[in-house]
């Protein structure tokens, strides 16, 4: 099977601080890949490189056969990589419906947006998606007036309707209740039917429950890869986590 | 639907103005409508897209000067314009020559401001210079142009600007009929620009613009290139200002560097702020109300005007950030709520 994403020896140098020191990562279609590791390991930086927010100093990022290493963010999104950030970032002064309209897969160049009108088919698709995330009745409300949880769901709906082939998530369950975590976990596997997912997550219970493949990062490098059980047995991983015994959020789970 | 009726009424009242206003008041209103055209553009970039430009005086001025060059050449009847003779210029400069054709002048009045705005905004927005930095930059452009226009007296008429026109397309500018026709033209252009901008802002483009205003980065990660959109609306608003400048000079008969300077540029922003920058009609009303107040106050208390202007700005920013349109909207919202309340009660009664 052809990989969705291949990172080859990716280096990021922030004025002398090497946040990534040669990272290799291969992700296959329909995979849910968890990135874990102590703070400062470079997980978020790696996501930033993939989605074009941070430029790689060296190395290459391939998305299918496209070299996306030097492409601007909006082009990377257009070819199928979506990114969800830590805080819910919806547009507060647009309605739920309008938020979905912008997120929908479409030609995003100015001249087609100028003429764009929703077709019946698109409306049905948007309504179906809203129904799924439980926001259909709220569609005329301003997104800013939704509850925190509803905002999270709106954002997830926006990711789904974008139909990405690779979805990047940065701590998606931060600040969620237990029930919401569960729904998110289920949603993750639903997402994986349509696309590959890379998730940065600190909550080890969540990782254990929903992961198949885990990549452990440490000091800008990939330490090891494997299932959660394999990873937990790995000597070097134990050293990294236990050696930093006070790093409670991660160590407690290991 | 209600709103649409309001728009029809408003524009009908504007078109009928020559029948109920004196010649003097009509000429003032014509001038204010030019400002209203600028205000629509400001509302588009500031209220809808979050770009605060403190440099729209330049675009207005460029449009006005382009038109004025044609008027000046027509008034000079084949001779050198008077101010050039006084400055010792012997021959008409090459860049003045095309302006003998009115169509060239009109095209330039739109194209030059648009091009300048496109260049300025492309290089700033591409490099992700935003917010107050862009505002300062746009203000700097004003200083550059005003200095240039004053300095190059032999080409631009210096501080006095361009004035003493006689005819347009062969019709006398001082004739009341010409002035009425020009007034109608201005009202028609305002209506056209309003309808066009309204269509843009209510369509998908409008949603992209609001999204850019509130979270530009997020828009980028939805796959839109905000630079293209921002350059487009900024240039469009400069084009509006250019058209407004051309119409202004036709009716007022004068353009000088003072009218494109920093204070007029800030006033333009104020019109939109007072009227409600998020609302196109609010911006139009803001321009008309503010300028009516200004002409009334400066007729009666000329020294107080600038102080009042400053005070008004502070009051609007602190207490009515959504301007006149915001006041109207909250009144309308209360009315709708009351209506709904009655309906609910009625329903309860029935059950």
From TrEMBL, chain A:
Keyword Protein biosynthesis among UniProt keywords: no
Alphabetically ordered keywords of this record: ATP-binding, Nucleotide-binding, Transport
Single GO term (MF): ATP binding
Matches recorded under InterPro entries: AAA+_ATPase (IPR003593), ABC_AA/LPS_Transport (IPR051120), ABC_transporter-like_ATP-bd (IPR003439), ABC_transptr_urea_ATP-bd_UrtD (IPR017781), BCA_ABC_TP_C (IPR032823), P-loop_NTPase (IPR027417)
Gene Ontology annotations for the cellular component aspect, listed alphabetically: plasma membrane
SUPFAM superfamilies in UniProt: P-loop containing nucleoside triphosphate hydrolases
Domain of life according to the entry: Bacteria
Presence of the UniProt keyword Transport in the record: yes
PROSITE patterns referenced in this protein's UniProt entry, alphabetically: ABC_TRANSPORTER_2
PANTHER family found in the cross-reference section: CONSERVED COMPONENT OF ABC TRANSPORTER FOR NATURAL AMINO ACIDS-RELATED, HIGH-AFFINITY BRANCHED-CHAIN AMINO ACID TRANSPORT ATP-BINDING PROTEIN
Name assigned to this protein: ABC transporter ATP-binding protein
Record organism: Geobacillus thermocatenulatus
Lineage start: Bacteria, Bacillati, Bacillota, Bacilli, Bacillales
